[in-house]
Design goal:
The complex is a heterotrimer of chains A (303), B (259) and C (353).
Chain A lengths: L3 H19 L1 H30 L3 E2 L5 E2 L5 H4 L4 H34 L2 H12 L6 H12 L4 H8 L13 H26 L2 H9 L4 H12 L1 H17 L2 H6 L7 H10 L4 H26 L8
Antiparallel strand pairs in A: 1-2
Chain B lengths: L7 H24 L16 H8 L1 H34 L5 H13 L2 H14 L6 H24 L4 H9 L4 H30 L2 H6 L7 H11 L3 H28 L1
Chain C lengths: L1 H20 L7 E7 L5 H11 L2 E7 L2 H9 L7 E2 L3 H9 L33 E14 L22 E3 L3 H11 L9 H14 L3 E4 L4 H6 L5 E5 H10 L3 E4 L5 E9 L7 H11 L2 H10 L7 H10 L1 H9 L7 H5 L1 E2 L8 H13 L1
Parallel strand pairs in C: 1-2, 1-3, 5-6, 5-7, 9-10
Antiparallel strand pairs in C: 4-7, 4-8, 4-9
Classes of the chains: A mainly alpha (303), B mainly alpha (259), C alpha/beta (353).
Chain lengths: 303, 259, 353
């Protein structure tokens, strides 16, 4: 005979597992919980600490003192930081636009390539990014420096006579930035373009449209989700990226990423650095949420 | 998409772009055989730097750490991320929007902030810094990327297949194992690949959460280039690229044989 | 798909092999946290051979980074190598262990010019490791005329031809000295003037580089600049036209020291290590590998006796062996406490121009 207690616990077990099997809400919660719990512990809690830090003060020797201080935030209203923010936005925008322009034809080519070759071609784009980031940038130094590989090549081909002095210039920085973010644009674009039905283009040409018009009116609009995804993946990170401007640009400029890093590692003013980070995070979150509400969550993000 | 031959201009253009992508890699490989120490100009051919590399205990230790961290964090993040993607793409549950926002946070935080916050966090809960803290941190930033990628794959997934499977008598678990999972596997693997890449190359967050003896390859390389950029680093990159290339070629051959 | 699976299997296999190869080195360890490429591997290997203690060598890129991490509470390190002003800060914040000098008998090997300095009177917490300077370097065949002062570098002839350390204290210090002020000034007016002065020289600066500025000199891209003595020495090794001087306004002298952070798990091993580093034969290894200046008198004597060629090159170049005239004008950088915020603001503004 099953005891009263035993049958109760069996009933409870059954109802939980039944609930898991039949109730979609329970299923959903079960699936999302590991991520939610993990991210809460390792992202949210640490960030709350940072938020708390942003209201404290810097001690004489760089230690954190428990004095409430709102000046960390008010300091950010100094036009200097507005100028830096605008400059960073400009760098991010420039990188994104050039990446889109350079990457679009490549994505188009990939989407049209024979199906068997496509994944190989894609992997070939990713392969260089399995080397170390810093090393890649240093390799560009070898190429771009005065009298370096590029100069030697161009002079040998008699295209130029004197060194181009590319290294430490804004051009070098752009070359490096576009280099780093190109795959983030090409892959989503490729995914978008690949999905476009051939029949649509055939229909357009049947209706008398020349190829360029078919491209403008059919292909381009349909590839917009890919462009949006590529923009998000490029614009936000490139805004905060400072390693490329520091190494290829000679560290002659200052971006928000530099400011934040300096606060934590040079000036050792953690409260101020925390405040700057909070503001930056707020701005990027607003941007991302606005963009994704408008265009889906960026479904063309990756293959 | 159609497979008609692309115009000659498009092909030339694409070759040029690939050239752009591979230029630094080729330079790295070529200069790894350079006799000159300083990586500025070519001087002569030698295997010397490969020899130095294999004797460099710190680099070998760093490589070992990097690989362990990458594999563990990728596996865990992929599992958690795939579950989350399934949840978000197929179900509606309370706090859905909060969960979605939570997913985005690691993508938009500056890495320095994430690194510092984790450092402070671990110190406050008195968790010793080391390989474990690095792994925990890597999982944290990998989960959102995996989720995003798998969601993209799930987006076009037709639930009717699952329902058909269940109509035919399979329960949820079997359906998942034999129908859903294989279909979304390309997305899951892409997510895993992305997570692996992010983990292997991570510098900032690892810097803050590393402890004594848990240095990784990006950390080691970064400090090597600070003093002097010797071709030993080029040798390391060349080998790294060569290994991956060989694996890809093997995979490609295996796949075409299968077909 | 299959290739990805194979990739995973291969990576897993490799990592398992590497883990197995690690062997059972579970004996005592020492956790060293220092500048990268600053401690010769041979020295660490010899230490292991003699005492059976394995050294884990983790690295940082600047004093501030190390300080930031330790201030945040990171622990587990036994030996660190902070510079003079960092030692001063750490002493004030009670972040260092006092040294048991009875364990460090080789202390007497040090040149007394470098012991008992004002940042750590009596060497209660630190032992000098290496020292050096940051000053003016130039290539005498490239410059329009040989510069004698920092002010000379403001000449428009140097447009795009200077390389400078990416260091706010060094550059602000240089500008302050050019204006006749103290390089560790905390006076707001003086600091603002210094920044304005720096903005004037910005067009002349090709690149800010604290890691490998010598490359731009060797390559001829830059003609002159403000660098560490180590960089100057490396440039000199490749190009004998390189000259390294302390300008009339002054330059910087710095001292790096071995110290033990509070709460170090292997304090005894740490002191043993410090003593080991002071051994002349070991100390010489540092000089052979890295072109800084060695405060260990016994080591230099040992070098003179055993490798006169290296000794002579060490003595001949102002990067490794600055003459008295050089040192007369060299002053250390000191922490500026609360003025750090002002320095940082001005530096950020300077970089944004």
């Amino acid at each position: 005979m099953i005891s009263e207690q035993a049958s109760e616990s069996i009933k409870r077990k059954f109802s939980l597992s039944r609930s898991l099997r039949e109730n979609p809400i329970t299923q959903g919660l079960f699936l999302i919980s590991p991520a939610n719990i993990y991210l809460f512990i390792f992202i949210v809690l640490p960030l709350i600490l940072v938020a708390g830090l942003s209201f404290l003060s810097r001690g004489t020797y760089g230690q954190v003192e428990f004095r409430f201080d709102i000046t960390n935030y008010t300091r950010l209203f100094d036009p200097l930081y507005g100028k830096i923010l605008l400059f960073s936005l400009g760098v991010g925008l420039g990188t994104t636009v050039i990446c889109l322009v350079v990457g679009y034809p490549l994505a188009y080519f990939l989407a049209h390539a024979p199906a068997k070759q496509r994944s190989l071609l894609l992997f070939l784009i990713l392969l260089p990014f399995w080397t170390n980031f810093i090393i890649r940038i240093f390799a560009w130094m070898i190429i771009l420096r005065s009298g370096g590989v590029l100069d030697s090549l161009l002079q040998w081909l008699h295209i130029t006579q004197a060194p181009l002095n590319l290294l430490y210039s804004p051009t070098a920085v752009m070359i490096g930035m576009v280099y780093e973010y190109l795959p983030f644009v090409v892959l989503p674009l490729y995914t978008s373009l690949e999905k476009i039905e051939n029949s649509l283009l055939e229909a357009a040409s049947d209706l008398g449209a020349p190829p360029w018009k078919a491209f403008l009116r059919v292909t381009l609009p349909l590839s917009v989700p890919g462009m949006i995804a590529g923009t998000i993946l490029t614009f936000i990170p490139s805004m905060g990226m400072f390693v490329v401007p520091d190494i290829l640009g000679g560290a002659k400029t200052i971006l928000i990423g530099n400011v934040i890093r300096n606060q934590f590692l040079t000036a050792r003013d953690w409260p101020f650095g925390s405040a700057a980070s909070m503001i930056l995070m707020l701005l990027t979150m607003i941007f991302t949420l606005y963009y994704t509400r408008k265009a889906g969550f960026g479904e063309e993000l990756l293959v | 998409m159609s497979e008609k031959k692309s115009s000659i201009w498009l092909r030339i253009y694409s070759v040029l772009v690939y050239g752009y992508i591979y230029a630094p890699i080729l330079i790295l490989i070529v200069f790894s055989f350079n006799t000159q120490k300083l990586n500025i100009r070519w001087e002569g051919f030698t295997f010397h730097w490969y020899d130095v590399l294999f004797k460099d205990g710190q680099v070998l230790l760093a490589t070992r750490n990097t690989v362990i961290i990458a594999i563990i964090s990728t596996v865990v993040a992929t599992i958690i991320g795939t579950m989350a993607a399934l949840a978000m793409q197929r179900y509606r549950f309370p706090f859905y929007n909060t969960s979605e926002t939570l997913m985005y946070i690691p993508i938009v935080i500056p890495e320095v902030v994430m690194g510092i916050s984790l450092l402070v966090f671990f110190v406050m809960i008195k968790f010793t810094l080391g390989i474990t803290t690095i792994i925990l941190s890597h999982i944290a930033f990998n989960v959102p990327f995996v989720t995003l990628v798998v969601r993209a794959r799930l987006h076009g997934y037709d639930k009717a297949i699952d329902e058909a499977s269940m109509d035919l008598g399979a329960n949820e678990i079997t359906t998942f194992r034999r129908v859903t999972l294989p279909t979304i596997m390309p997305g899951v693997l892409s997510g895993a690949m992305l997570a692996l890449t992010l983990s292997l190359d991570d510098y900032v967050i690892t810097y803050f959460t590393a402890g004594p003896g848990s240095t990784t390859l990006p950390l080691r390389v970064y400090s090597m280039v600070r003093f002097i950029v010797t071709p030993e680093i080029n040798a390391l990159s060349t080998i790294w690229v060569a290994i991956i290339f060989i694996i890809l070629v093997i995979g490609q051959i295996a796949q075409s044989k299968r077909a | 798909m299959k290739k990805i699976r194979m990739l995973c299997i291969l990576i897993l296999a490799i990592s398992m092999i590497l883990t197995a190869c690690d062997g059972a080195k579970k004996s005592t360890t020492l956790n060293l946290y220092a500048w990268s490429d600053y401690v010769p591997q041979q020295l660490l290997d010899d230490f292991y051979t003699k005492y059976g203690i394995t050294v884990n060598y983790d690295t940082y890129e600047s004093n501030e980074e190390m300080l930031a991490k330790l201030q945040a509470g990171a622990s587990g390190y036994d030996v660190i190598i902070p510079s003079d002003y960092t030692v001063a800060i750490m002493i004030k914040q009670n972040m260092l262990e006092t040294l048991d000098m009875s364990q460090i008998t080789n202390f007497g090997n040090l040149d007394t010019r470098f012991t008992n300095r004002d940042y750590d009177p009596g060497n209660k917490y630190s032992i000098p490791y290496q020292w050096g300077t940051s000053a003016l370097v130039y290539d005498k065949t490239l410059v329009p005329s040989e510069p004698k002062s920092w002010a000379d570098l403001w000449d428009p002839a140097y447009k795009g031809r200077l390389v400078m350390l990416d260091d706010e204290r060094e550059l602000m210090g240089m500008a302050l000295q050019v204006l006749g002020f103290d390089k560790n000034s905390t006076n707001t007016i003086e600091l603002n003037q210094a920044e304005a002065k720096l903005v004037e020289i910005k067009p002349n600066i090709l690149t800010f580089d604290s890691s490998t500025p010598e490359n731009t000199i060797i390559n001829g891209e830059a003609w002159a600049g403000l660098v560490y003595n180590g960089n100057a020495s490396l440039a000199y090794q490749s190009d004998p036209n390189v000259v390294y001087i302390c300008p009339t306004e002054g330059c910087t002298i710095w001292f790096d020291n071995l110290a033990i952070p509070k709460g170090a798990p292997h304090k005894d091993a740490a002191e043993l290590f410090m003593n080991w580093v002071l051994d002349p034969q070991q100390s010489v290894l540092i000089t052979m590998e890295f072109p800084y200046s060695n405060p260990n008198k016994a080591a230099l004597d040992y070098l003179k006796a055993n490798d006169p060629t290296t000794y002579d090159s060490y003595m001949a170049f102002s990067g490794t062996n600055p003459p008295v005239t050089f040192l007369a004008n060299a002053t250390p950088i000191k922490d500026v406490g609360d003025a750090t915020t002002l320095y940082d603001n001005l530096w950020t503004d300077f970089k944004s121009r």
